[in-house]
Specification:
It is built from eight helices and 53 strands. By secondary structure, the protein is mainly β. The two termini are 25 Å apart.
């Protein structure tokens, strides 16, 4: 395999080194709209050597001897343009993009001197300025500068975006059900059965070209987003040969080389993110009383000293001529392994300052000054994370006006988590010390194949365009042999294993397929002297999910045992007791199948009513058919059938060439996910809650209004001010059941919810104060939301808080889940091309946000603000080598989750993840 790879790279390098002639390639676009111009003529001045631009506005002129040339670019109704002094070198490709201006004086020729234009960040801002929608984004250039390793780390730097749990994206304070994520414009499934969104940490940053967040609705987009529509664009094939290798090693000051790091004996393939079969279910799911010898007896954590964090990536891309037509490709591989550890029980001893707890009201809220602790425990957790990915993107131009592309991608992640808890439980003997052990391995994978095409018909500026995509994605979540074991230490030195807290093992498996199909037709027209486009199309998305959960619990005739010399207890001692057995606790309702079919059709027009006034307006129709069927035939089926009309209008007024005023209205929707409709009980292992689906849920309808002023002073600079309002009918929220004694959570439709917000962004070069190599950026969002508490839950809250001491009882509303009242990002960047030094300092903080919905009148749990400061410093060594030093999480703030009750703070969880320092090297041929 190694020999084949070296031979392949050698051929690619040889093709570039030994060629004796050079090539000029580039793209011709409209200077005002940024659209590709199909069929423009590009020739070497004074010769007949030239080429027309293709469907992407691209041209290629090859077999040029080394030297300097002048390009002449011509297109109907546009000014001719000459580009002088383009230098061509033997064996190399020179990139020269050209922007043509439309003008009445079409016979005049504009002459400019050749220059290499920066793409990436400037190109993304140009696209933002010329878009008909309100949008933000982040480029590969900005991701690299900030040193982010995956999409989740990068996207939190975008205005109005926060990331919850390191995975889930919230746009404008709205939860994951209100965010839509696509890959190259195609639907991709999430891997968490309880969530609606894609887990963004699955996408390594080296595979990403850019991420664009659309914040207003257009009829050619899916209707099921409200906060934002995120499109992850993977890297496209380059105009010339490129080869890149990256490697880095990192040190985490809480985990790396820490001999107390918690782990357990897993599988031989954990380093690749999937189980080797050793944890898989060893018996049939239907086996009621399997022999205990079939199951691993290993429920004992081990300690080890983890090695350095590691990260590697390689990518190669090029463009060839096959059968007289251009074929381009880019292939990339990446691998990352990191460790995280905390032991937050070293401060405090089981009391109010213990680091993990849950609390309740044991009296009328007006009669007490603090909450009653249900449990307070020390929490010791070791986590090992692996993420790797592979991507291959290819594109072939059948004709100048027709191309097809194939994108293949696979991402794989694995997380090994080992947890030990020790403390006091209210429901147990207060003299006893409670101990709990949990061993978990979670494997996630996502495989995607996308086939797409673009075709143009017609001549000159009157090209009709047809584009289509069909995408098939398979995602899988495998959680094999999640093990729990708990016991109590009595003061006399003995051990108690209670029958109602017997050891348990969980096996969970989720497989989902998505088949997404889109077809769009764009027809140009003129309204007076103004250009416009009529666009129509259809879409069909089919999803199928299979989920199963298998539970086995131990049972024994004996509950009292002797402790080890160190006060611990060996699980094998419990298992080997005569009569100890394993019972199957699985139920038919623990298996369900979900199907979702969405058909969409739309029509819209995008035109200018005057040179300064642009209108995009249209309507989308969506038909929804969702069914969730449990294996338990006695349970009600979860069904959702809707026909929805979703109108949209986006108005843009160009105050100047570089200043826009935007106003938009759109109606969107939010559907319940399969898990929320599935009527089965699932135990949240690490949260201690039972979740029950609700087959009677309705979809939510949302009215969105946006107002935005934006200015682009110079290329790479931006100033924006935005305001927005959203009214949500039938919002879906979690709520504790009012009729069950245990901690059972379900999903319900509330009456309505509102959200108001404002956003500001500034990106400015500092040359005007003499710091020409510095750029500063900052953005902030301020959001207020109110969700009406479900009637039964509110009645229970007020019954426990008659005098309405708490805000919940007073107002009957709560903020939307995970919605922060403010989000702030700031960055300072330095880049000196001559010296090769670059640096980026990035700061991020969010406001207090709801993390857990409480019950029985207890105030909700809020995650506290957490300032994050990252530093990246780079040094180029010649043309191809670069060293990079990254310092992540420099402030190492506490992850703190609190309940505020009267004047007291109750700590629900509190820990730190440590600072990480890494040194990386890059080798690049471009």
């Amino acid at each position: 395999m190694q020999r084949i790879l070296l031979t392949f790279i050698g051929i690619l390098l040889g093709a570039s080194v030994f060629a004796q002639t050079g090539t000029i390639r580039g793209t011709v676009t409209d200077a005002k709209t940024g659209e590709a111009l199909i069929g423009a003529t590009v020739v070497i001045k004074g010769t007949t050597n030239g080429a027309p631009t293709d469907i992407d506005g691209k041209y290629t002129i090859g077999d040029l001897a080394a030297g300097k040339y002048t390009l002449l670019v011509q297109y109907v109704s546009y000014q001719n343009k000459e580009v002088k002094d383009i230098e061509v070198k033997a064996g190399q490709v020179t990139i020269q993009d050209v922007k043509l201006g439309s003008d009445a004086k079409v016979l005049e020729t504009v002459v400019v001197t050749a220059r290499i234009e920066k793409k990436a960040e400037i190109a993304l801002l140009t696209m933002q300025r010329k878009s008909a929608l309100v949008q933000d984004g982040i480029s590969a250039q900005a991701i690299s500068r900030a040193g982010d390793s995956n999409a989740a780390g990068a996207i939190k730097r975008v205005t109005g975006v926060s990331v919850e749990g390191g995975k889930y994206v919230y746009v404008r304070g709205l939860g994951d059900r209100y965010t839509k994520t696509t890959l190259n414009g195609a639907d991709i499934p999430g891997l968490d059965p309880n969530r609606n969104s894609v887990q963004m940490d699955l996408f390594p940053s080296n595979m990403i070209d850019n991420m664009v967040i659309l914040k207003t609705f257009s009829p050619d987009l899916p209707g099921n987003f409200t906060g934002g529509y995120i499109n992850i664009t993977t890297k496209d094939f380059p105009d010339r040969f490129t080869f890149q290798v990256n490697a880095s090693l990192g040190f985490n000051d809480q985990a790396t080389f820490n001999s107390d790091f918690l782990s357990y004996n897993g599988g031989s393939m954990d380093y690749l993110g999937f189980d080797d079969g050793g944890r898989q279910l060893p018996v049939s799911r239907e086996d009621a009383l399997p022999g205990k010898e079939n199951f691993s007896k290993d429920i004992t954590p081990v300690t080890k000293s983890p090695f350095l964090n590691q990260s590697y990536s390689v990518s190669v891309g090029n463009q060839y001529t096959v059968a007289g037509r251009p074929l381009g490709f880019i292939a990339a591989l990446s691998y990352r392994k990191t460790n995280q550890y905390y032991d937050n029980g070293k401060i405090g001893e089981f009391g109010e300052k213990a680091r993990l707890g849950r609390f309740s009201l044991n009296s009328d809220a007006s009669l007490i000054n603090s909450l009653n602790p249900e449990y307070t425990v020390r929490n010791n957790v070791g986590t090992e994370n692996v993420l790797w990915g592979a991507v291959l993107n290819t594109s072939y131009k059948i004709t100048d006006k027709s191309k097809v592309g194939l994108n293949l991608m696979h991402n794989q992640s694995g997380k090994t988590e080992t947890r030990v808890q020790q403390g006091k439980y209210q429901d147990l003997d207060p003299a006893n010390t409670f101990n709990s052990i949990a061993l978990d391995f979670l494997s996630r994978s996502l495989s995607s194949a996308q086939l797409k095409g673009e075709h143009a018909f017609g001549e000159g500026v009157n090209n009709i365009k047809l584009d289509w995509i069909t995408s098939f994605t398979v995602s899988r979540l495998n959680q094999p042999d999640l093990r729990f074991f708990s016991y109590e230490n009595e003061p006399n030195g003995s051990i108690v294993v209670r029958s109602n807290a017997a050891p348990r093992r969980f096996y969970r498996d989720l497989t989902q397929t998505n088949w997404d199909n889109k077809l769009n037709l764009t027809i140009p027209f003129k309204l007076g002297e103004n250009k416009g486009k009529l666009k129509t199309g259809v879409a069909y998305v089919s999803k199928n999910r299979d989920f199963s959960q298998t539970i086995f619990a131990y049972a024994s005739n004996r509950t009292d045992f002797a402790a080890d010399a160190d006060g611990g207890f060996d699980f094998n001692t419990y298992v080997e007791v005569p009569g100890t057995r394993i019972q199957n606790g699985s139920q038919d309702r623990d298996v369900y199948n979900g199907k979702e079919n969405i058909f969409g059709a739309y029509i819209m027009a995008d035109t200018k009513l005057s040179p300064k006034f642009r209108v995009l307006a249209g309507v989308r129709f969506e038909r929804t058919d969702i069914s969730v069927i449990s294996n338990d035939a006695s349970l009600v089926k979860g069904l959702l059938e809707n026909n929805d009309i979703l109108p949209a209008i986006n108005l843009t007024y160009s105050l100047t060439e570089n200043m826009n005023l935007r106003l938009a209205y759109g109606r969107t929707l939010a559907r319940p996910v399969f898990r929320e409709l599935a009527p089965f009980d699932s135990f949240d292992a690490f949260g201690g809650l039972i979740y029950v689906g609700n087959p009677n849920l309705k979809r939510s309808l949302i009215d969105n209004v946006d107002l935005r002023w934006e200015m682009y002073p110079t290329p790479g600079e931006i100033i924006t001010v935005s305001a927005f309002f959203k009214n949500i009918k039938n919002p879906i929220a979690t709520a504790f059941s009012a009729f069950t004694p245990n901690q059972q959570v379900t999903w319900v439709n509330q009456e309505d919810a509102q959200l108001f917000g404002a956003e500001v962004e500034l990106r400015k070069k500092l040359g005007f104060i003499g710091l020409k190599d510095f750029t500063i950026g900052a953005n902030a969002s301020f959001i207020v939301s109110a969700l009406n508490i479900e009637a039964q839950e509110l009645s229970q809250i007020r019954a426990n808080d008659v005098n309405r001491v708490t805000e919940l009882a007073q107002d009957g509303t709560r903020p939307l889940f995970a919605q922060s009242p403010f989000l702030i990002n700031a960055n300072l960047n330095y880049n000196n091309i001559n010296s090769g030094w670059s640096a980026s300092l990035n700061f991020n903080i969010f406001g207090e946000r709801m993390a857990i919905v409480s019950r029985n009148g207890v105030p909700d749990v809020y995650e506290q603000p957490r300032p994050v400061l990252d530093l990246t410093v780079g040094k180029s060594l010649g043309e191809r080598w670069k060293l990079t030093l990254k310092a992540r999480n420099l402030l190492n703030p506490e992850y703190k989750f609190l309940i505020n009750f009267k004047d007291a703070q109750h700590i629900v969880n509190n820990y730190t993840v440590g600072r990480t320092f890494s040194l990386g090297v890059r080798y690049l041929i471009d």
